[in-house]
Amino acid sequence: MTKHTFGNRLPRKLQQNMEIVGEQIRLARLRRNLSIAQIAERATCSPPTVMNVEKGVATVSIGIYLRVLYALQLEADILLLAKDDPLGRDIQDLNLKQRQRASKKQ
Fold first, then answer.
1. Can you give the CATH number for the domain in which 63 is found?
2. pLDDT at 86
3. Bigger pLDDT: 10 or 41?
4. Which domain does 67 fall in, by range?
5. Model confidence over 38-69: pLDDT tens digits?
6. pTM for the full model?
7. pLDDT in the model for residue 89
8. Long-range contacts of the stretch 20-28 (C-beta < 8 A, 24+)
């Protein structure tokens, strides 16, 4: 039985996203016709860990996800995270100081 602590429980939306990521990794593995054991060997982790990645378990470290992506030759996909940040750019633009002109001398 898994002990429910703050470290392994995510808000529902985040858990759903983790499950989607795990499913995408599983489908990538299946498209390459690779077994869980083969990915585990290439990613230097155990087969149950790869199964947890594919389930989207929150306690698996991001390093393991990166090694699994590397084993699938998808390591560049991690660079797409937070690449497009429209909200952050809007906030940044709001914080830009407006240049003020000196008052006209008469």
1. 1.10.260.40
2. 86
3. 41
4. 6-95
5. 999 999 999 999 999 999 998 999 999 999 99
6. 0.77
7. 83
8. 20/56, 21/56, 21/65, 22/53, 22/54, 22/55, 22/56, 22/57, 23/54, 23/56, 25/53, 25/54, 25/65, 25/68, 25/69, 25/72, 26/54, 28/72, 28/74
Q: How much is the pLDDT for 103?
A: 73
Residue 100 placed within a domain? no
Which one-letter amino acid corresponds to residue 96?
Answer: L
pLDDT at 92: 82
The residue written with tokens 């002990």 in the block is 3
Q: Give the DSSP per-residue string, 16-75.
A: HHHHHHHHHHHHHHHHTT--HHHHHHHTTS-HHHHHHHHHT-TTS-HHHHHHHHHHTT-G
CB-based burial, 66-83: b 16+ in 10 Å, e otherwise: ebbbebbebeeeeeeeee
Task: Please count the structural domains in the chain.
Answer: 1
Structural tokens at position 28:
């990538």
